[in-house]
Amino acid sequence: KAVNIDKVLDEIAEDEIISHSRLLQTATSVREISKQLQRRPVKMTVRNVMIVTKARDNELVYRTRELAEWLLCTPRYGSDVGVNVYVDHKLRRSARFDMQSLLAKDSRFKDMLRFWTPDLCWTSPEKFDLVLTLGGDGTVLFTSWLFQRIVPPVLSFSLGSLGFLTNFEFPRYKDSLDKIMGDVGMRVNLRMRFTCTVYRYQKHAGPGTPEHIEAEQFEVLNELVIDRGPSPYVSNLELYGDNNLLTVVQADGCIFSTPTGSTAYSLSAGGSLVHPDIPAILLTPICPHTLSFRPMLLTDSMLLRVAVPRNSRATAYCAFDGKGRVELRQGDHVTIAASQYPFMSVLSQPTEWFDSISRTLRWNNRGAQQKAW
Amino acid sequence: KAVNIDKVLDEIAEDEIISHSRLLQTATSVREISKQLQRRPVKMTVRNVMIVTKARDNELVYRTRELAEWLLCTPRYGSDVGVNVYVDHKLRRSARFDMQSLLAKDSRFKDMLRFWTPDLCWTSPEKFDLVLTLGGDGTVLFTSWLFQRIVPPVLSFSLGSLGFLTNFEFPRYKDSLDKIMGDVGMRVNLRMRFTCTVYRYQKHAGPGTPEHIEAEQFEVLNELVIDRGPSPYVSNLELYGDNNLLTVVQADGCIFSTPTGSTAYSLSAGGSLVHPDIPAILLTPICPHTLSFRPMLLTDSMLLRVAVPRNSRATAYCAFDGKGRVELRQGDHVTIAASQYPFMSVLSQPTEWFDSISRTLRWNNRGAQQKAW
Amino acid sequence: KAVNIDKVLDEIAEDEIISHSRLLQTATSVREISKQLQRRPVKMTVRNVMIVTKARDNELVYRTRELAEWLLCTPRYGSDVGVNVYVDHKLRRSARFDMQSLLAKDSRFKDMLRFWTPDLCWTSPEKFDLVLTLGGDGTVLFTSWLFQRIVPPVLSFSLGSLGFLTNFEFPRYKDSLDKIMGDVGMRVNLRMRFTCTVYRYQKHAGPGTPEHIEAEQFEVLNELVIDRGPSPYVSNLELYGDNNLLTVVQADGCIFSTPTGSTAYSLSAGGSLVHPDIPAILLTPICPHTLSFRPMLLTDSMLLRVAVPRNSRATAYCAFDGKGRVELRQGDHVTIAASQYPFMSVLSQPTEWFDSISRTLRWNNRGAQQKAW
Amino acid sequence: KAVNIDKVLDEIAEDEIISHSRLLQTATSVREISKQLQRRPVKMTVRNVMIVTKARDNELVYRTRELAEWLLCTPRYGSDVGVNVYVDHKLRRSARFDMQSLLAKDSRFKDMLRFWTPDLCWTSPEKFDLVLTLGGDGTVLFTSWLFQRIVPPVLSFSLGSLGFLTNFEFPRYKDSLDKIMGDVGMRVNLRMRFTCTVYRYQKHAGPGTPEHIEAEQFEVLNELVIDRGPSPYVSNLELYGDNNLLTVVQADGCIFSTPTGSTAYSLSAGGSLVHPDIPAILLTPICPHTLSFRPMLLTDSMLLRVAVPRNSRATAYCAFDGKGRVELRQGDHVTIAASQYPFMSVLSQPTEWFDSISRTLRWNNRGAQQKAW
After folding, report:
1. Do A173 and A263 reside in the same domain of the chain?
2. Which of A161, A341, C283, D225 sees the fewest Cβ atoms within 10 Å?
């Protein structure tokens, strides 16, 4: 029986006005629901597994073969074989992946071993019940880029030391996957992504035609960076929140980071570390000209807009998760909003985030320490 | 007709297991409800107004008298007089407040002019429909301290320049209050507070008796500061989240700040500016010994606990919104949790927070600026 | 009678070995000499004054005319006329400067009013006894650029608010210049500049030919910036001091700043404020990847060298006082050394530097302040 | 033949006025002398060696015995025995040091093995030609404290990992000391110390008697910290340089650090890393209330003075190298000046400082790193 949250929304909507005790009570309840949801395990039948890796890395291709074979062979859900596996279509002709020897093991594998393309991810994300990544944090970012709309649950294996986004150890993959595909199920994080949309200013827009037209759109998992690019001049960027001018940014650039991205570029520029469950947009300036323009966290219910003024001397450049350098010319703007398509990552353990930062930032190793006599 | 959120919670609770699409859908709906709630105006009949001010400041006492008189005299809600007014019981004998001349104006005022005490705020917060503060941010913190449980809506007037928490200009009080008590109603922020509870270690606890007993408890609106106090030695503080040891803090101290407090002490120690709508706990270290121990934002659904190890050389000291220096001795701990009693502040305008930081931090005034030729 | 410091150097050089008490004694004496020199006024006959301004700014051209006229007309050094004045050769035909009406005032002015070109500054800096700048800090940087070798004493007027480098108020120019050209004399700061030299890697250097040849050379007063330019990739820059590899810089870039430049770009990137009398080279990383790679001050007796590794994926870009974007390709390097040609700026008063920072950074205006009740 | 720097000073003093080219020339020469001095090896006959260690640490006492025995026994300077050794007088009765078995080895040792006391260091520092420390950076700070006036050359051994101040590995002591006491000699750093003097305000000073009298005086090698101590209130500290009011510090405290101390407490509070050869005083605020009050480097030719205003609500506390908590009451002040008694530390190698920071701050280990795909 489905929970009818829509009905709740309708009911709230009917109340034009609300008393302060009702507001308080409702807010408390909503907080409680959020909390419950975070702790709820997800369980489902995993019939189709996608594997993402760097097809150019030989070692990773061998591990992909190993993993694919194990998934195909290990009996699941009452069958005497395993589940369908999608691997990168680039591996179809890879000698190291050696598809033929795999298909030779069982005639049914011919149907069960499949190949994904970026196009398939774009058009049919629902085909995949679970995505496994093999590699570093970059491979996870690539997976986010593949799924510009709905993202299946993603479980990330690291072959060497664990990263911020890769929290499962590859050597223990059998144990991890048996649990998740078995009775235990999995707990997931809904990691916020941003929908970033570039709008181009139409200088010669006639009457009745819009001044701006929509151009590129990207989902980002880490951050949008806007900087001055190769220009020696700094552009003054206008920052709007829900159409109100909040401030004019005078800096080498600014970073709009998700909580997930708080351990990446934003950290180098002085931003805080932000737990991925917090619904917030980090605005971290790069070399701001005003010392009091400090890193900030904005509410994710806000629609942000960054505009290059029409009379600006300089233009600006956008990079989306480090990719796709797009120039913002005079009059153009880019909007940033919490996406309706979060990135669903499988949690290795409740303190996963803390473990990743203390491991990667070497927390418990003292640096400068005042000496006592 | 009341919205039955409890029923929703029950329904969610029945599902032991949830599919990932259901999880995603529910999470999206809950986010939407949160968003709607933030934008919903509160409207109610304001029959009892409390005024908080510094009773020792002559200027403020004169303004309190002016405000009280106007509230008592201005006809509201179909009556030919105004509403009940509670002023500080210390003003009962104040020559400057001059209660007698006020009561002489209308015989009904004898009943309508009332006096509050900290005790009344503690036992009967529901007596007040609206609290007005006159003074600076310190007066707002004092109001938060008065209401250790439910807080009525608080509207804060500044007599001079506006502060982070005082967003209404006193000279325009008639206009502001006529709107709020009239058909327009008010929009409020539910500002998170923390419930901080000190637990004392019982060294000689017998078998069957608890190792720790609860001691002081405070609601804080800005922050809890834990530092080494007068001791030259730094204590290593153990930080637990939901009973997992997250890290050991080696620093002169650490600040647990609400988003509201992000513009106060936390900012001086290097913390980020955090919009008050974001449900997060800021952990800002003071002079950390490890350079990578950066300011952090933790999810407010976590129960935090800071403990002084039993074998620690030094003790630590807690201050709650700058008040009440409490020593944590070896084995003691203090817990920090998002309070179920938020601080309800009346919003002056949607961009109030941005206005306050750009005004107070002088954002649009350039500091260091690279010169162009 | 000239002080024979060279003789002292010779004497020191003769001692191959020195005892520790001698070393201590000599070091103390040298410190004392340095201190005395800083406090010594400079006095000389100023017969030739150069004026630098922005020839495109109308207001500044009018002020230049006013100043030139006053300098030419005011009797000095026993003559009944003033001193020779050099103005920008671009003003020769300026209607606003109106040379003709000036020359008409006194037949001797035809010889006394002269015009400078960048070429003259380069070949004959000794022609100028004093340089006056009218404009902002940018005009002072331009003056530094004009004098790539010996710099005459420079006195900088501001027309509006004073800057970091412009410490004299134009409205009081008569008083200031009468003192300096009279019996009072002037006190000067010898502001360190860097000599930055770009060396190009010769890929196909034959045997016996050098691997690197010298290319561009610049004197900088504020800073050398090395960054990744338009490239999305960060180059790992090798930092050498006196030919020892000190570290490999992983960052968006790094700034080598003089103490004078410590209030400019370096400050935006997190550098400290450094008094201009301190002989040090600031190394301030831009968005470093290692949190412990903090801003640093290196001794100015070191020869620094920054190299792009031969196998680097990316190149790097140099900017000298914000000018002259030069690409460093794989194998190239740039050296930074304290220049033997410091920038001699006339001091307005002993606390000039403190005044400039408290004024420009708005020191005595509190920003975030913890509120007391 | 001694270099007569005093004569140079006299000659400079005779010139009341100096031309700008003379000033430039002299300044350049003085810089050159400084540079030469830094690179000059110190050579002398080491006849008396003092060993400083923690007498309570058993391991260190065994190593002290080993070192003392080797120094006593190894023939030097044409004799068939070694040099005189001073050990801590607390070891006279130490069973672990076992003086008797040492004296039994050679009858001459009775005269050669001597014992130092803090008193002897205070009255006769010239008795020691070389000081060896065994332990951590704290032991080096303790040695600085022992020698409040002239400091003999100090060579610091570390038993475990090297620290900021301990740059020689104990296991290789024979090799290191043979070189230094042989023909190679040693290179030393003259590390700046501060002379800090507390002055007490005499409230009831009669006419003709001074308002302030001198109280405590300390030489510090790392830093002077002035903070609010146990008080919840922040005192506004007045900062004077050469008797000019520079600013009023509103902060939890401020740190006056030597370059040597730049890797200690100052670093935790956000200060820069400063090479020990740079003659500068670091002023690093602790949690400043004004965001633009940034860490600063002041020239060491300045006499700094920090005063608690007479009408201050709060007092302040001083700590000298982490020791000796002294209260500054209303009207008191403390002065900070570069000491005429620097700390002479033996250099292990030219890049010693860079090695120590890259080792201790883990420079070449990446922390946060932007991931490439």
Report:
1. no
2. A161
